[in-house]
Amino acid sequence: ATRAKHETGEASPSVEAAVSAQSGEVEEGRRLFNGTCAHCHGPEAVAAERRVNLRLMQRRYRDKMDEVFMITVMNGRPDKGMPNWSGAFNNDDFTKILSFLHSVQTH
């Protein structure tokens, strides 16, 4: 039965659960982002200033996007006005925010 479902293009229950979990992570990341980061980076990560436009992270940092994100939020960039968020969020929160940012990248 699983093979038949796969051939018809239907997702298996484990794939559906994974997609649902990822979707939930993105939504939670969106909520965290809009509640904390939007005042500088814009609601839904839509910012007029290119330097704070997080929808361009993939284009700007390519395969280093995740690394740059984690270093930046954990250490801040005080010279650019970016605070250190390591005391405000845990790694799970950062992962959710990063999942949201991955979902809004413009290529």
In terms of structural class, how would the helical and strand content be classed? mainly alpha
Q: What's the count of strands?
A: 0
Beta content comes to under 5%
Q: Count of helical segments?
A: 6
- Poorly predicted sequence stretches spanning 5 or more consecutive residues: 1-6
Task: Give the fraction of residues assigned to helices.
Answer: 55-70%
Rounded mean pLDDT score: 86
- Report on the biggest sheet: none
What separation lies between the terminal Cα atoms? 38 Å
Radius of gyration over all CA atoms, rounded: 17 Å
The SSE string, one letter per element, is HHHHHH
The outline comes out as globular
Describe this structure in words.
The protein has helices at 2-8, 13-36, 38-41, 57-61, 65-75, 91-103. Helix 2 crosses helix 6 (91-103). 13% of the residues are buried. It is globular, with a radius of gyration of 17 Å. With 107 residues, it is mostly helical. Residues 1-6 have low confidence and may be disordered. It contains six helices and no strands.
List the helices and strands and how they pair.
Blueprint: H1 2-8, H2 13-36, H3 38-41, H4 57-61, H5 65-75, H6 91-103
List keywords for this structure.
single chain, 6 helices, disordered N terminus, about 110 residues, mainly alpha, about 60% helix
Give a short synopsis of this structure:
This protein has helices spanning 2-8, 13-36, 38-41, 57-61, 65-75, 91-103.
